[in-house]
Structures are given as C-alpha cells and as structure tokens.
Design goal:
The complex is a heterodimer of chains A (69) and B (274).
Chain A lengths: L2 H42 L7 H5 L1 H6 L6
Chain B lengths: L1 H23 L3 H14 L3 E2 L11 E3 L2 E3 L3 E2 L14 H4 L11 H29 L5 H22 L12 H24 L3 H17 L13 H35 L7 H5 L3
Antiparallel strand pairs in B: 1-4, 2-3
Classes of the chains: A mainly alpha (69), B mainly alpha (274).
Chain lengths: 69, 274
C-alpha cells in the first residue's frame, strides 16, 4: 500500500466519521428543537383536562407574557 | 453527546427556573395577587333593572350579552380574611391553594419553561456547530428575550388577571406567529451576508406588528391602570433576567460539557483550543 492510498484511506475514514458526527449533531439538534416546542406548548398554551395545566402554570404564564385567559 | 447536551439543558432549566421564581416573588407575583382581587370581583352578581325601569343591552367585544352581571366593588363579596377560595373556586376545577402550594406549582412550571427554552437554545448551538461560551451565551439569551418576550409584548402587553383582551385563541396564534417570524428574522439578519436577505429579515421582523395583534373592540378592565403598567414593566424586566441567566448558563455548561468533551464534533476546538 502506497503512502498515497493510506493517506486517501485515512481521509476517507475521517470524512465518514465526520459525516456520522455531523448527522448525529443535526439529528440531536432537530429533536431537541421539537421537544422544546412541545414542552413550551404544554406550559404556555395547553389547558389540560379540567384546566389543570392552565391553573398549575397560571402565574408562570402571566409572568412570561403568554396569552393566558 | 446526547446525554451531555441533555444534562446541559436540565441543569440550565433548573437553575434559571429557580432564580426566575425567586425574582418573580419580588414584584411580579404580588402584582398578580393584587390584580386577582379585582378579577374575583368580576364573578359578581347577576342583576336586573326592574327597580329602576331602565332597559339597555350589554355588549362585550361586539357580542350582545343575554346575561350580564353587575361588577361588584372589590371585596364586596369577600369575607374579611381574604379567603376567597370558597367564592372563587366553588364552581371551578382544581387550582393550587394560595401560598406554598401555588408557589410550588409556579416554580415547577418555571423550571419546565426554562428546560423548554434551554432545549431550543442548545438545539440552535448544536445546529450551528460553532463554539459557545458564557459571554456569547448571554447574547443568545438576549436574542431569546427579544424573540419570546419583547416582540410578542409589543403587540400583546403582559396581561394581568382580569384585564380585557380579545379571544384567547386569536392571541395565541398571533403570539406563536410573532415568535416564529422574529426568530427567523433575527437569525436571517445576523447570519446572512447579502443586503436582500437582510431586508427580507427586517420585513419578517416588522410583519407581525404591521398585521397587528388581536385586540378587543372595547378595553374595559377592573384592574387599575397603575397596576397594569407596573406589571408590564416588572414582568418584562424579570423575563430579561431569566433569559440572561438561561443564556449564560446554557453557554457555560455547553462549553464545559458538550464542546470540551467531544472536540471531534467541533473542528475549530480541536485546531484552536478556544
């Protein structure tokens, strides 16, 4: 194996691991963004059964300028 | 990496939520409790004008009301001990009792709010893939404050219980639209290089306010204007504090836990120990 091909192989494997890490980073980021949105909706907007969510998070919603009532 | 990112998020949400709850107790919570005295008066007393012989109709936001109520003066229908549980909540569903229980639920929902915002901040850190530290984290917090507090508050000022407002759903839709437009607008403005993109970003930032937030036809409130004004400022300043803590803590922990432990993720950090 020539030095050149070894270098090429090394670059290829580095690229592959970079791509794997890159996609993992992006996937994690997108999932976290979605989870955050769902959680924010639950705290800020959902009324819940019998207004449970609204009443529990009432003061938070007013303080955080969410439309509440 | 995922577990380290989640640790960053959970720690940040906890720290920011607890400090936020403490800060709220200084000005914001007392104002909410004060306003509720007027809101509770709204449950008031059905009345008729048989005695006076005067007839008229009551219209609320363009809708004629079949049943109207005479608004009682504050405390008129309350026992002296400020124990309105029996009056206010008799026909309502569960709500946390005043005092420690209510503070506890507020703290929990503040922590969940902190975790939700921190999830979004760290998500953006990951998606951008650039290094973040405490100082740049604070700037990210300022951006979050502008997106989630300042821009919506321009159209829909922070509301006290008992204030008049347009239908809840229409305000929620405007709020969500404004947050999304402002977030994309700020992101586009700071990340783009061309003038055209920057102009588009400014248009996005302005659009929700040109469209205008939904407001009632008639502003009518039992809550004194002084209380509303104090509340608007107090809640925005407290939110700013919350966002600075949230951004700074997210940035600090993200650098310590995510960047420094996985340098392969961030080429800049392996080449340049920054």
């Amino acid at each position: 194996m020539t030095t050149k091909t070894m270098a090429a192989l090394a670059t290829a494997s580095l690229d592959t691991s970079d791509a794997g890490v890159f996609s993992q980073r992006i996937t994690t980021g997108v999932l976290m963004l979605l989870t955050g949105s769902v959680l924010l909706f639950a705290v800020g907007f959902a009324q819940g059964s019998g207004n449970f969510m609204h009443n529990a998070a009432h003061d938070s919603r007013h303080a955080a300028t969410f439309p509440c009532h | 990496m995922i577990s380290r990112a989640l640790t960053t998020v959970l720690l940040t949400g906890f720290v920011a939520g607890i400090l936020y709850t403490g800060a709220q107790m200084l000005r914001v919570t007392p104002l909410i409790l004060e306003a509720e005295k007027y809101e509770i008066a709204e449950i008031a007393l059905p009345h008729s004008h048989v005695a006076s012989g005067i007839t008229h109709t009551h219209v609320l936001n363009g809708v004629a009301l079949d049943v109207h109520q005479r608004v009682a003066t504050p405390h008129e229908n309350l026992p002296a001990a400020h124990d309105h549980a029996g009056v206010a909540h008799a026909t309502e569903n569960w709500a946390p009792g005043d005092g420690a229980e209510r503070t506890f639920y507020t703290a929990v929902s503040n922590i969940v709010t902190g975790i939700a915002f921190s999830l979004m901040l760290v998500a953006v850190f990951l998606l951008r893939g650039k290094t973040v530290d405490m100082n740049s984290g604070i700037l990210w917090g300022a951006a979050g404050f502008a997106v989630f507090a300042l821009a919506p508050a321009l159209g829909l000022p922070p509301e006290l219980p008992g204030m008049t407002a347009a239908a809840l759903e229409s305000r929620q839709v405007w709020w969500i639209g404004t947050v999304i437009a402002t977030a994309i607008g700020i992101g586009l403005f700071t990340e783009s290089k061309t003038i055209l993109a920057k102009i588009a970003a400014l248009a996005l930032l302005a659009a929700p306010h040109l469209i205008g937030a939904p407001h009632p036809f008639l502003f009518e409130s039992n809550v004194p204007a002084e209380l509303s004004a104090q509340f608007a400022i107090a809640s925005l300043v407290t939110s700013a504090f919350f966002w600075f803590v949230l951004g700074g803590t997210s940035g600090y922990l993200y650098k310590k836990l995510v960047i420094e432990s996985s340098s392969v993720l961030f080429k800049t950090s392996s080449l340049n120990p920054q």
